[in-house]
């Protein structure tokens, strides 16, 4: 009989997850209990992670074109949601999800939509040298 | 307010960086914030293993070389200031050159960008080799010093890994070998292959972990270790029963940890040389024999020329998988050849056995006009 796991978000919402979906997380796999609290992850984000796990548990062939399209849509979120999803997926150690999310970060760097965090580190002057390097390389 | 990107853990950032193939993306990653910059620095050595060589092409103006990146499909705007000559080797991003007094120098072209302050340590001078035995040979080779060494290679990065850096040369007196430990020896050690001296002409030598492997004109594979300054013991590891005729050969310890011998068939039309095809063999260490392979590896690209043969992971470096990127290299004629005759370059697909020339027209015209053989060089990314 398949077990049911209970995942609790930091804002006290509980998600019930079937075994096949839950065990996509290494953290849950190595947990002794079926009730896991995920610290620092709110319901909105945890819900999305659960959605991803459910989708990937039910599809047998993850190389299928349909699931690829679904995955592409899943990661097309704004920076803030993306960041929170990475943090959650990393805590839960869901390798493939982390991989897809980091791929998206890479795509944002290519598209130059991920910009320098200038304001937080005003004394970070290496940036100027590297920008010059980029310019002189003709990029 | 921006998400707290700087706080992402290192292993997650390693995962992002791994997915960035081109040089420009790699640099943009490094400037997102300070902690990402440091992650890039930490990953430099790993990154270097994944980076494809670039093509250094002499611009014929004094000390001016252009740089072409096949992966970024770009000839860069800047030029590099290194002497205009034929280089006998290129290893870990350093060119290997022979001077008139038979001294060997290592030059890092990426630390010598024209118009910018030259970085220190861009030239490493090694002791002179011993002079050729007769006066007439001395005169001859002094004039053609760039050809006195047929090919040279190194075992490690001479700055990052100086402790493990050994330079090996194949020099013209009967294509024998000599080596020197960087910073540890004042003289070169000459290797007596012990295998019928006049019968062994070394074509290529490569480093595999703590040993060196060399192949001679009869396709014998020799190996030797370099632990002391005394003459190392040379062992014959393997032979070939059916030997390919008239061909060039390269040795490479691939990223899949196989020792490969790659045979290059060339044809001559007048003075013009062109490559017809390649064969790949893998050494079966236990059986001491070469086994023919019909591919380089699942995700492997190979670069051959006068430089040390290198393989890179194809998808991570942006290269074509199972392909050999070749350029013109020395036939051992002992002097600089006319520019019309070093146009033997292209990409060979091992599976389809076909040759293509994916260079941009700008790069092609630079190669066609250059006075000296272009060289593959692994870029040194200065962060």
Task: Reconstruct the topology from this structure.
The complex is a heterodimer of chains A (139) and B (383).
Chain A: E1 4-8, E2 14-18, H1 19-22, H2 26-29, E3 35-37, H3 43-58, H4 65-74, H5 79-91, H6 95-110, H7 126-137
Parallel strand pairs in A: 1-3
Antiparallel strand pairs in A: 1-2
Helix pairs in contact in A: 3-5, 5-6
Chain B: H1 10-18, H2 23-30, H3 34-42, H4 44-50, E1 54-58, E2 65-69, E3 74-75, E4 89-91, E5 94-98, E6 103-107, E7 123-128, H5 135-143, E8 149-154, E9 166-171, E10 176-181, E11 189-190, E12 202-208, E13 211-216, E14 221-225, E15 235-238, E16 247-253, E17 259-269, E18 272-284, E19 289-293, E20 300-304, E21 310-313, H6 314-317, E22 323-326, E23 346-349, E24 354-356, H7 361-369, E25 375-377
- How much helix, percentage-wise, in residues of chain B? 10-25%
Spatially, the strands of the biggest sheet of chain B line up as 21-20-22-23-24
Number of beta strands of chain A: 3
Mean pLDDT of chain B: 89
Strand content of chain A: 5-15%
Gyration radius over CA of chain A? 18 Å
Mean pLDDT of chain A: 85
Radius of gyration of chain B: 21 Å
Give a count of the beta strands of chain B, DSSP E runs of length 2 or more: 25
Poorly predicted runs of chain B are none
Unreliable stretches covering 5 or more consecutive residues of chain A: 118-124
Question: What is the succession of H and E elements of chain A?
Answer: EEHHEHHHHH
Largest sheet of chain A: 3 strands, mixed
Largest sheet of chain B: 5 strands, mixed
Helix content of chain A: 40-55%
Question: What is the structural class of chain A?
Answer: mainly alpha
Q: What is the count of DSSP helices of chain B, taking H or I runs of 4+ residues?
A: 7
Number of DSSP helical runs of chain A:
7
Q: Indicate the multimeric state.
A: heterodimer
């Amino acid at each position: 009989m398949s077990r049911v796991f209970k995942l609790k978000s930091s804002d006290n919402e509980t998600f019930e997850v079937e075994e096949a979906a839950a065990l996509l997380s290494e953290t849950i796999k190595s947990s002794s209990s079926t009730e896991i609290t995920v610290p620092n992850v709110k319901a909105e984000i945890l819900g999305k992670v659960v959605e991803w796990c459910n989708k990937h548990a039910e599809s047998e062939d993850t190389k299928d074109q349909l699931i690829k399209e679904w995955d592409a849509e899943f990661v097309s979120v704004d920076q803030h949601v993306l960041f929170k999803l990475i943090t959650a997926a990393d805590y839960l150690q869901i390798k493939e999800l982390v991989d897809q999310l980091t791929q998206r970060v890479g795509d944002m760097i290519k598209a130059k939509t991920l910009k320098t965090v200038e304001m937080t580190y005003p004394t970070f002057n290496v940036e100027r040298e590297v920008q010059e390097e980029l310019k002189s390389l003709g990029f | 307010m921006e998400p707290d990107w700087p706080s992402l853990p290192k292993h997650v950032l390693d995962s992002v960086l791994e997915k960035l193939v081109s040089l420009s993306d790699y640099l943009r990653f490094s400037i997102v914030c300070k902690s990402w910059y440091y992650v890039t620095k930490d990953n430099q050595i790993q990154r270097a293993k994944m980076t494809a060589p670039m093509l250094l092409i002499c611009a014929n103006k004094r000390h001016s070389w252009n740089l072409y990146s096949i992966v970024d499909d770009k000839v860069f705007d800047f030029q590099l200031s290194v002497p205009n000559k034929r280089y006998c080797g290129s290893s870990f991003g350093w060119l290997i050159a022979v001077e008139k007094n038979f001294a060997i120098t290592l030059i890092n072209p990426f630390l010598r960008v024209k118009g910018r302050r030259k970085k220190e340590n861009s030239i490493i001078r090694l002791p002179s080799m011993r002079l050729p035995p007769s006066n007439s040979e001395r005169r001859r080779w002094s004039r053609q010093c760039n050809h006195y060494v047929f090919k040279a290679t190194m075992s490690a990065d001479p700055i990052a890994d100086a402790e493990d850096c050994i330079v090996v040369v194949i020099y013209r007196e009967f294509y024998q070998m000599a080596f020197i430990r960087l910073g540890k020896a004042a003289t070169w050690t000459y290797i007596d292959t012990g295998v019928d001296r006049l019968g062994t002409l070394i074509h290529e030598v490569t480093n595999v972990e703590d040993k060196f492997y060399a192949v001679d004109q009869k396709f014998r594979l020799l190996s030797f270790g370099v632990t002391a300054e005394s003459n190392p013991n040379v062992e014959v590891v393997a032979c070939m029963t059916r030997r390919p005729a008239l061909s060039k050969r390269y040795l490479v310890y691939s990223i899949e940890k196989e020792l490969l011998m790659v045979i290059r068939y060339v044809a001559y039309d007048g003075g013009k040389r062109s490559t017809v095809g390649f064969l790949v063999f893998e050494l079966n260490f236990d059986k001491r024999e070469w086994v023919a392979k019909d591919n380089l590896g699942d995700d492997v690209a190979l670069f051959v020329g006068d430089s040390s043969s290198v393989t890179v992971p194809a998808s991570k470096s942006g290269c074509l998988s199972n392909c050999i990127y070749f350029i013109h290299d020395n036939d051992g004629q002992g002097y600089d050849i006319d520019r019309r005759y070093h146009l033997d370059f292209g990409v060979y697909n091992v599976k389809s056995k076909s040759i293509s020339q994916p260079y941009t027209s700008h790069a092609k015209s630079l190669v066609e006009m250059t006075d000296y053989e272009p060289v593959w060089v692994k870029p040194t990314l200065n962060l």
